[in-house]
Specification:
Strand content: 15-25%
CATH class of the largest domain: Alpha Beta
Distance between the termini: 49 Å
Largest sheet: 11 strands, mixed
Number of strands: 17
Oligomer: single chain
Radius of gyration: 24 Å
Helix content: 25-40%
Amino acid sequence: MKPIQVGLLGIGTVGSGTFKVLQRNQQEIQRRAGRAIEISMVADLDVARARSVVGDGVQVVGDARQVIAEPSIDVVVELIGGYGIAKTLVLEAIAAGKHVVTANKALLAVHGTEIFAAARAQGVVVAFEAAVAGGIPIIKALREGLTANHIEWIAGIINGTTNFILSEMRSKGLDFDVVLKEAQRLGYAETDPTFDIEGVDAAHKATIMSAIAFGTPVQFDKAHVEGITKLQAADIRYAEQLGYRIKLLGITRRRSDAGQGAGAIELRVHPTLVPSSRLIANVEGAMNAVMVQGDAVGTTLYYGKGAGSEPTASAVVADLVDIARLHTADPGHRVPSLAFQPGSLADTPVLPIAEVVTSFYLRLRVADEAGVLAKVTALLAERGISIDALLQRESGEGESQTDVIILTHSTVEGRMREAIAAMQALPTVLAPIVSLRKEELA
């Protein structure tokens, strides 16, 4: 059978890994795919560097549109990234009747609905396993392995940079700014780490998983996004004393009780206290992990490297193998991009963060005098917020202020915001109140 011909757009870290994995495991991949998969064209602005990676047996060009226009190319692999030219090239490849493989989570989280519709109209596949959690096959698990399940929630550590920073802050007791510089020095964080540390990258990935889990169009613009830049070493330490670890989680949950007709979906990324006994709380360094709760299977956990040349290449090549198997299949019998049949996607709304129900960690810097704690707890009680645990740091000799740490039971976020505003107005509360969400994940 004729080999599948692949055109690669961009041969940086992931592109070079994809080329190497295909070359090294060529026979094994062919045995699985039923036909050979060959990268026959590469487009990269740095033609000389690209040629040094792929050698003389592959055509290297500086213009990506040459790859798209080449009649012999069956699949275009987009590894450029970003929202701009990548979107144009992907849509042009689809219009030319090419299947597309992409690792571009930002593109799909924002423009996925348009891209999947274009692919459906042309009868081609857009595959994107590498877009979420690198080498962890979470997209295939959600789309195929868990297809019998009513997915209830997903919670994931899906950004290695932030997980590395939080792990270092916890183990070494250092503040965020110090660890960020170390992460940049070691290559775990970009020179401009904004997308990572502000939670945007994780929100892109959570958006894609949410759409697949619940059968909705992608809704990145509705996601609530918070990063880790305001986290302090003191809160990581207090959380540890209370039996929790702080992780940046992407969370999406089905809410049938949300008063939104057929229900609603939570879609949020933020620092979260997780019980230290949970497996996901013990995922350290730059590793990723995703928990999925299904009604039939219960809780499943997917763990591995979320980035890197060959881990991400593993997912790209897996998509190429899927396309090789399905290349001649009737488009109507392929697995839909978002798991559900296109005509069955739901318009389930995303719940505003103020209506989300969760529990909270609060840290208050207060004057060390009688009656302060009673006033704080009274303000919580007035709003129906009950306390789960309380920790008060003992004042040192000569100190006139102290930290009070409160863990609450579940409450509506909007109600908690009202309580925080009331507590902040107390003259005995001496600094901005720190508020973090807490999830039991059970």
